[in-house]
């Protein structure tokens, strides 16, 4: 949970900005270093699913009493969400970022930023283990990129993220993918977000304008 001490990766996930506004990192992997997350079409579910199955996740369900009848007690499972109000606050703060605003305005067909993908951004913030103030623009786009990886079959639209982050400069993309890998690792490889969790996240503030980004309502 983000309320606990962040992992040692938090410094890696808070890249430094140069005077030109680009992200600098002294350890950008060279050409000989393989991309840690391959971009082949079938990788997104199979690769991460295999990792999730190998890792023993902490219990996310609890048993609660549903009803009592004499000496009989009926129990039901209730999922414990790791999403806290502070994660919603981080999300709202980043929605005010000028680049994020331009990106959301550009994605009129909601191919990369419908309400479910944006809900996943909040879920990922709750799992990454950073302090609220450490989340920056780059984390918003990394989380959105991961959400698209997990849920979308058409991977082309998410490539627009690079244009909004870096313009025509392609040299920063290896760093983005390095940070993406570190972000997934900081979440314990837990990249799946259920529809139920997305709807719980939206229910926290159901009147929020961003939940109106419903792809099914587009003509």
Question: Concise description?
Answer:
The chain has helices spanning 43-54, 85-95, 98-106, 115-128, 137-151, 160-166, 173-186, 195-204, and strands at residues 16-17, 23-24, 61-69, 72-79.
If you had to describe this structure to a student in words, what would you say it looks like?
Helix content is 42%, strand content 10%. By secondary structure, it is mainly α. The protein is globular. 26% of the residues are buried. Mean pLDDT is 77; it is low at 1-11, 16-45 and 49-59.
Helix content: 40-55%
Largest sheet, in brief, is: 2 strands, antiparallel
- Provide a count of the helices: 8
Uncertain stretches of 5 or more adjacent residues: 1-11, 16-45, 49-59
Strand content: 5-15%
Spatial strand sequence of the major β-sheet: 1-2
Shape type: globular
Quote the distance from N terminus to C terminus. 39 Å
**SSE-based structural type:** mainly alpha
SSE pattern, N- to C-terminal: EEHEEHHHHHHH
User: If you average the pLDDT, what whole number results?
Assistant: 77
Number of E strands: 4
Global Rg: 19 Å
List keywords for this structure.
two-stranded antiparallel ribbon; 219 residues; mainly alpha
Please write out the topology.
Blueprint: E1 16-17, E2 23-24, H1 43-54, E3 61-69, E4 72-79, H2 85-95, H3 98-106, H4 115-128, H5 137-151, H6 160-166, H7 173-186, H8 195-204
